[in-house]
Amino acid sequence: MAKVTVDGIEVEVPNGATVLQACEAAGKEIPRFCYHERLSVAGNCRMCLVEVEKAPKPVASCAYPVADGMVVKTDSPIVRNARRGVMEFLLINHPLDCPICDQGGECDLQDQAVGYGMDHSRYREAKRSVKDKYVGPLIKTIMTRCIQCTRCVRFAAEVAGVPELGATNRGENMEIGTYVEKALTSELSGNLIDICPVGALTSRPYAFVSRPWELRKTEGIDVQDATGTNIRIDTRGPEVLRILPRINEEVNEEWMADRGRFSFDGLKRRRLDRPWLRVDGKLKPVSWGEAFAAIAARLKGLPGDRIGAVAGDLVEAESLFALKALMARLGSANLDCRQDGAAIDASRPDFYRFNTTIGGIDEADALLIIGSNPRHEAPVINARIRKRWTAGRFPVGRIGPAGVDLTYPHQHLGEGPATLRTLLDGTHWFTEAFRAAKKPMVLLGRGALARPDGAAVLAAAWQIAAGADALRPDWHGFNLLHLFGGQVGALALGFLPGEGAKDLGAMLGGGVDVLWLLGADGIDPAAMPPETFVIYQGHHGDRGASRADVILPGAAYTEKDGTWVNTEGRVQRSHLAIYPPGEAREDWRIIRAASEALGATLPFDSLAQLRAAMPLAEGLVRGFAADAAGPAGDPAALSDAPFAPNLANYHQADVISRASAVMAQCATTYGEASFDTAVAVAAAE
Amino acid sequence: MSFEQPEHFAFDADSETEIAKILSKYPEAKKASGVIPLLYVVQRQMGRSTGSAWVPKVAMDVIAARLNMPPIRVYEVATFYFMFNMKPIGRHHLQLCGTTPCMLRGSDDVMRACHDAAGIRPGQSSSDGLFTLTEVECLGACVNAPVLQVDDDYYEDLDYDRTVALIEALKRGERPAPGSSIGRQTSAPEGGPLTLIDVGGE
């Protein structure tokens, strides 16, 4: 530890810390452009100059290591003068276009110019201008505004792992760009907008839309992947205008994936905004009362075991809990939340959770990925894995399709369960490295369970973890990576077939007469028997609604107070940012209202009452029975079919992103398998 | 400014020999250090094979693949240094120093001579494809100013007439001996030694 005196305040910081960190420890704010806590130090903007006693001139505090007994002044005349000089140089080539700049109001340069800028310019010469670059459909560039802090270059190379940005030419002619025109191939590209301290990189969909002070900011949770990214939903009136990440060191640090950030325009398109009823084969708009009456008429006299419910991937815990309770009152335990048919064993929470936790990845020392491409399934978790890999000594093996770039080097061990067998009996060469590790991790993709031998894959993955001594009270190395934000919540609430009840396959096979789809769009409409009465409750006119007999318009994740459980099992609350459109309502209210119409009134009238009854407490419970007794399934039943990619199309993986024009453009740009938009329910339009 | 980027580039046998020698200097994990020498290899090979010593984009991609580094890192290095020509140039690259010592010793005359003999201004290439003229900063040969660098050779102590003669010779395909054009021995005083002449024996 080194003792440093900052403006008369004595602080102790670790050896090797920088002067800037010492100043922050003393509570002093140091202006900066190029320095960023999560990136390497560049030291090229010179804004963080401070005076260090005995140093001949001001030093760049971000790149200057502390020494014991150092005396730092952050607000002396020399420092103020130096920073004024730096600011004057930065502004020489920066355009005076704040009134038309999208960064205006949340611009580091604008803010710091207030502190250190002059009220006039002494510069009379021509300003330089730089041609704008094309870096993809999500990021708008106005390169003349660039102050060449190189944060974006470092982010792309270090965090995103796609070294495609660089600084070409030199001096006056230096430009940031890709040199060859190309769209950045990163699922984290939106973060470039956040880290750019000026208006050089801004959001293309948000261009000229709003000013930050006009926005209402609501804290939420991203549900479009299972990371549980903490987000801030910025709204104006009835519209979501943008979504930004919030800092949560244990989950997303300060990053966010592109699908969650940019697909919100899908919240305005193809929405179900009123109840519909199928009459003589055609959907007709009806009132809520008529819709409930039709359901009540169909359910009348029907035994409970002829009714079933299927939950979708983006549903919050409250409505799942309410629907489960309603089904119980109707006498049905025919529930399922596994539209993909994944062979998940929910008998113990640690069989279906990311037990290592996202923060725990930092401690791991070996990783085996089975049937998953975390780069597409959870880009932020993948960045965390990359961060761990960057720290060194981290062997990564992967079983799955060949030719996948995870943004960090890894060993491709094989394409299918055949490799699992050799890992199980210890004959595979990777076994040695994996078993030698003190904190090994198995990362199993949910998609690897959605196959006929899913249970065997699950059991095999568990046994591989057990064989490497990864299931200890102090370290749980078994991880299941889910794909969407509502999946773990449904498992945690036991939205699964009860004792002797029908699962999804049995329900689709004619086992039920009435099927309640709660946001379930993952089922092929053709797979449902034509005589089944289908109730679809959800927010988008997608596959589920196209087959429905009754449509109950619900709320999307930005439109309700909801509880979500991420892949770790972390329970987080999201808040209502805007109201659902038209006659659509929050989903738990719909179920509560329906229960009354069906004569099975549920015993809660408010969200608070519902939550009091719901067995999910906020936060992360890491309690797990660290014993090796594994999930049901026999590894001997492993087939030889190779694992398939879980998401064919990263940008259009859920109903919201499929309705998004921005995501459709991304899918075109990145040449992804196109989503068939024809399945959009015609009647709802 | 418009020019065509070739679609393919592959190192020829001569270049491969050079590359093997260059890369033997670096440990395998640090072979990206060889990026600058390899860019020179590319530029020389282009000079040999097309008569225009420049670095096409596709060649930078080939270097990136060879050195196992992202292409953008090669673009950054190549565009940073003026020694690498990012667009086609003439057969002979005339690099004229215009920094103070050369300017005081008459680099303006040399510039005029280049224009009169080759018909080009700085930044231009002659229509016959023989010459490209670039005005550069100090070449470090101030004692023998003014100096004109032709490809890899320095021609020193130039004036208007001798520069015209040099360019005419280059046009004829000759290659005059590099160095001082007035017969000065390296950078010794003009007309022979002036000091220590009475030292050394008899």
From TrEMBL, chain A:
Cofactor comment text: Binds 1 [2Fe-2S] cluster per subunit.
**Domain 4Fe-4S His(Cys)3-ligated-type, residue spans:** 78-117
Question: Which reaction is the catalytic activity of this chain?
Answer: a quinone + NADH + 5 H(+)(in) = a quinol + NAD(+) + 4 H(+)(out)
**What are the required cofactors?**
[4Fe-4S] cluster; [2Fe-2S] cluster
Alphabetized UniProt keyword annotations = 2Fe-2S, 4Fe-4S, Iron, Iron-sulfur, Metal-binding, NAD, Oxidoreductase, Quinone, Translocase
GO MF annotation list: oxidoreductase activity
- Record-annotated 4Fe-4S Mo/W bis-MGD-type domain positions: 215-271
Q: What enzyme class is recorded for this protein?
A: translocase
The protein's name in its UniProt record: NADH-quinone oxidoreductase
What organism is this sequence from?
Answer: Falsiroseomonas selenitidurans
- Organism phylogeny: Bacteria, Pseudomonadati, Pseudomonadota, Alphaproteobacteria, Acetobacterales
UniProtKB/TrEMBL annotation, chain B:
Which cofactor is recorded for it? Answer: [2Fe-2S] cluster
Keyword terms: 2Fe-2S, Iron, Iron-sulfur, Metal-binding
Q: Which residues does the annotated region (Disordered) include?
A: 175-202
Could you tell me which PROSITE patterns the record lists for this protein? COMPLEX1_24K
Report whether Cell inner membrane shows up as a keyword of the record.
Answer: no
What CDD domains does UniProt report for this protein, alphabetically? TRX_Fd_NuoE (cd03064)
Report the Pfam families cross-referenced here. 2Fe-2S_thioredx (PF01257)
Family from the record: Belongs to the complex I 24 kDa subunit family.
Q: What is this protein called?
A: NAD(P)H-dependent oxidoreductase subunit E
Question: Whose protein is this, by species?
Answer: Falsiroseomonas selenitidurans
